[in-house]
Amino acid sequence: MENTHIEQIRPDLTWRIRHTAMYPDHPYDAVKLENDADGIHFGLFAADQLVSVVSLFNEEAVYQFRKFATLPEYQDKGYGSFLLQHLISYVTALGATMLWCNARSTAMPFYAKFGFVETDKHFSKSDLEFVIMQLQLNN
Known about the structure:
Elements: E1 4-9, H1 15-22, E2 40-46, E3 49-59, E4 62-70, H2 79-93, E5 98-104, H3 108-112, E6 117-125, E7 128-136
Parallel strand pairs: 4-5
Antiparallel strand pairs: 1-2, 2-3, 3-4, 5-7, 6-7
């Protein structure tokens, strides 16, 4: 994507975008994760503005991404797809065997485009429906 780049960022740089894109009606601190300091955080910059973020955590060769968020005015422009593809390549290079997430049910078709499959684990949180989706990696 022209004029776009992805870099590793500090956890606190993710919070504004998480809040704006995911939980604008919740207190700001609601978007902070207890283990943010343990994660690897990526930011996608469009024309030098941070517009999309994702946080990555692992247990051995299994990686989970959380708080994948794109500012509303930048959604449906391919930025999230670009960032997710970067994440898949990144964990594959690390030798990951699986990448998974707690997907909002409404986002299932998005993740399916990348080969993620729905598991039988569904749950509700903050009046939202979630399903665990996972991508098996060939390492």
